[in-house]
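INFO batch 0412 | record 1 of 1 | parsing
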Amino acid sequence: MAAVILLAHLTAGGCLAAVFPGAAGVGAGLLVLLLGAVVTWDRALLRARSSVRRLELRSGAAALLELADGRQVGGVVAGRRNVNRWWVTLPLQGGPGRIVVVTRDMLPAGDFRRLRIWALWGRPGSVASGSGSA
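INFO prediction complete | emitting tokens
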């Protein structure tokens, strides 16, 4: 995710440098690249104080977030979620009003599968134990 964010900002900065002549284009391109570095640090690398450290799904669609600075905030996961094999987005209503993105490398495979099933169907899934791969 960090690489994608940086690549997108690098591309945008290159476009600005190509469109605007001289130092103005180069300066604007560098500012966009710097913005990409800040966004990567904050959002993709989870280094900000407001980064989510723990997500707890409760009964119904309630969720509790524990942030890096120790605060806990609650909310309700909205019905419109984006779920695919690489990530799950959980938009929260009430409280923080933010979207939590969980990528598949953030959780063990079984836990990520259960999260995907919960996000799709609203109920937890079960993971068969054993040494076989899915």
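INFO post-check: Strands lie at 52-57, 62-67, 72-77, 82-83, 87-93, 99-103.
INFO record closed
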